[in-house]
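Students often ask why inverse folding is considered easier than folding. One informal answer: many sequences map to the same fold, so there is more than one right answer. In these notes we will look at a single instance of the problem. The structure comes first.
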């Protein structure tokens, strides 16, 4: 219950010397919250429950709050207040803590060295209802950790042995949002969870799982390739089922939507140009690959197949020595497609208009030029097995055939057949980009970045792997 004659204090004014003051209240905006937790009863009392959240009243001052009371009280308070609400914390008692206390490991890292304790019996929480609420809203867009401490998603995947079970800061954009799923916890509770795939400027992706109800429904407002997130203290770990690193929003995590920092605007500009569809995405990855001569790790067909099936990587490159098969350039199968330059998806050749509802050209009614490119699939076979339906990038096809897609279309059929048999069943070396199977595509995607005939048999025998 609130007392009369309370005095407002700012978080910066709460010091050990003022901690024993009575009848104070703090006005701040909620920037993070966790679900209530119940503890067993002591003596003759009923179960105790605590509801934790984090508030901020200035760019430099934010603190954790612990609301103590009965299970009913904590549940009601938790359902009543949400991230973005400006609240009055009346008769909240500052509890100063040591930096190494175990409790700090389960709460967001804050700048204030105290926790505001709110008691059902002596304190109160109310929505702030004066006309100064608007001045708190910009605080929602300020990250709680410096942008200099951001970890790239590519580094999370490449350092998966070191980072398992660790907490990292990431600056990412939403790539995909999946529907809410209902599951049962180990103790029989009904829970709702949601998966979000995020991406950053390293062109790497990470699946992030959200568990608490506020964040699960907060996702409704997140727009793929538009919403940017600064996620402070995201827990990353190895997911055995997916065979890759994934992220989890934990009790320590603070998610800042569309943060007001320069790096966020740069990321947003970048991801708006990133294709949303898997095959268009790998085409962009292939086009952005550095000097292909740096791909020198020789692998066999079997080792590539085994590693792609096992997962544990986001994408990888390989150099393979194999014979070229299934090179159908003179048959009935179309060898070219017309793609939208904005999203990379195939467009009908009769209209040259993108039909993808997620494409900017569709939503904004823009006229974006289309491009016609090679669309060839080949098979590569060595002594250990074969790689079927490998997608030959347009640049690789053009370099192999020695002509553009327009020039190839004008060739007589005899010349096309001649080109086919010049390469079919010959020994080649090919540089590949491989994406393992995932939720977005059931089978691994193998893209041929470059391919050329091997004329030096010494090179072939020296580089042919045993397995």
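Output (designed amino acids):
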């Amino acid at each position: 219950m609130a007392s009369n004659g309370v005095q407002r204090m700012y978080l910066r004014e709460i010091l050990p010397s003022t901690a024993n003051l009575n009848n104070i209240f703090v006005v701040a905006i909620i920037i993070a919250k966790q679900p209530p937790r119940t503890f067993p009863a002591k003596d003759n009392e009923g179960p105790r429950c605590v509801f934790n959240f984090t508030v901020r009243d200035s760019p430099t001052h934010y603190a954790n709050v612990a609301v103590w009371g009965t299970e009913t009280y904590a549940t009601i308070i938790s359902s009543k207040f949400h991230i973005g609400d400006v609240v009055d914390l009346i008769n909240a008692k500052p509890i100063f803590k040591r930096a190494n206390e175990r409790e700090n490991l389960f709460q967001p890292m804050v700048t204030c060295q105290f926790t505001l304790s709110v008691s059902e019996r002596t304190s109160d929480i109310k929505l702030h209802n004066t006309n100064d609420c608007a001045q708190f809203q910009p605080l929602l867009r300020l990250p709680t950790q410096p942008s200099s401490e951001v970890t790239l998603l590519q580094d999370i995947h490449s350092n998966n042995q070191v980072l398992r079970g660790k907490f990292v800061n990431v600056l990412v954009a939403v790539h995909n949002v999946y529907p809410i799923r209902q599951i049962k916890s180990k103790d029989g509770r009904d829970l709702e969870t949601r998966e979000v795939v995020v991406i950053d400027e390293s062109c790497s992706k990470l699946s992030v799982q959200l568990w608490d109800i506020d964040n699960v429904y907060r996702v409704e407002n997140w727009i793929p390739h538009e919403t940017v997130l600064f996620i402070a203290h995201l827990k990353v770990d190895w997911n055995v089922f997916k065979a890759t690193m994934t992220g989890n929003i934990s009790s320590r995590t603070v998610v800042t939507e569309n943060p007001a920092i320069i790096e966020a605007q740069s990321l947003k500009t970048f991801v708006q140009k990133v294709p949303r569809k898997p095959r268009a995405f790998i085409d962009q990855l292939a086009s952005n690959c550095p000097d292909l001569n740096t791909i020198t790790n020789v692998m066999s067909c079997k080792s590539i197949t085994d590693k792609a099936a096992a997962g544990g990587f986001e994408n990888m490159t390989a150099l393979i020595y194999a014979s070229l098969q299934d090179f159908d350039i003179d048959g009935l199968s179309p060898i070219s497609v017309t793609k939208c330059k904005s999203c990379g998806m195939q467009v009908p050749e009769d209209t040259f208009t993108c039909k993808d509802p997620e494409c900017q050209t569709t939503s904004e009614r823009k006229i974006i030029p289309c491009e016609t490119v090679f669309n060839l699939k080949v098979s590569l076979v060595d002594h250990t097995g074969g790689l079927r339906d490998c997608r030959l990038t347009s640049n690789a096809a053009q370099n192999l055939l020695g002509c553009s897609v327009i020039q190839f279309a004008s060739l007589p059929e005899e010349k096309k057949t001649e080109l086919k048999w010049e390469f079919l069943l010959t020994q080649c070396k090919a540089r590949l980009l491989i994406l393992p199977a995932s939720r977005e595509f059931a089978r691994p995607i193998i893209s041929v970045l470059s391919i050329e005939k091997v004329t030096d048999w010494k090179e072939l025998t020296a580089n042919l792997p045993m397995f």
